[in-house]
Amino acid sequence: MTPSTPRATRISHIGIAVEALSGSIPFFRDVLGLPEAVLDDADGASIVGFTAGDSLVELLEADDPASPIARFLAKRGPGIHHICFAVDDLDAMLERCRAAGVQLIDEKPRIGAEGKRIAFLHPRSTGGVLVELSDH
Ligand code: CO
User: Fold this and answer.
1) Cα of 82 from ligand 1 centre, angstroms
2) Cα(59) to centroid of ligand 1, in Å?
3) pTM to 2 decimals?
4) Residue 22: its pLDDT value, please?
5) pLDDT along the chain (136 residues), means of 10
6) What DSSP string runs through the chain?
7) Which residues are CB-neighbours of 26 under 8 A, at least 6 positions away?
8) Could you tell me if 82 and 131 are in contact, meaning their C-beta atoms sit under 8 angstroms apart?
C-alpha cells in the first residue's frame, strides 16, 4: 500500500545481537537514557527496543539455538546484526531489488517485530550488511 504522503526512505532501526539482554539493557536504558519501546519477539529471538530519535535500537537475544541470531552469535559474536530501512512502498522496493539482481531472503513481505511488514535482503548483495526493509 502506498501512503498518500511519501516519507522517503529512512533508518527504522538497527538490530544488535547480544548474548544476554540483561547484560546489555543497562547501557542503552540507564547510561544513554533511551526510552524503552515495546516490541514483539520474532524469528526465535527475544527483542527489547529503545527509541533514539526517529529510529530504534533493537537488542536481539536468541531463544532458540537454531535461530538466525544464535547462528550469527556463534559465527561472528555480538554486534550489529542488521539495519532496517523503512520505505514508502515496500512491494515496489522489493520488486526493484529483484530486478536489480539483489538476492532476497524473504521473497514476500512478512510481519516483523514492530507489527509492520518487513523483508530481508541477503548480505551478499548489500556489501556484507544484512538489510531489512519495512513499511513506515
Ligand atoms: Co529488524
Assistant:
1) 7
2) 10
3) 0.91
4) 96
5) 72 97 97 94 92 96 94 96 97 97 97 93 96 97
6) ---SS----EEEEEEEEES-HHHHHHIIIIIS-PPEE----BTTEEEEEEEETTEEEEEEEESSTTSHHHHHHHHH-SEEEEEEEEES-HHHHHHHHHHTTPPBS-SS-EE-TTSSEEEEE-GGGTTT-EEEEEE-
7) none
8) yes
Order of all β-strands in the sheet with 79-87:
36-37, 45-52, 55-62, 10-18, 79-87, 130-135, 117-121, 110-111
Residue 39 carries which side chain, given as an amino acid letter? L
With beta carbons less than 8 A apart as the criterion, state whether 56 and 66 touch.
no
Query: C-alpha 123: how far from its chain's center?
Result: 13
Distance between Cα 42 and ligand 1 center (Å):
9
- Residue 84 CA to ligand 1 center (angstroms) comes to 6
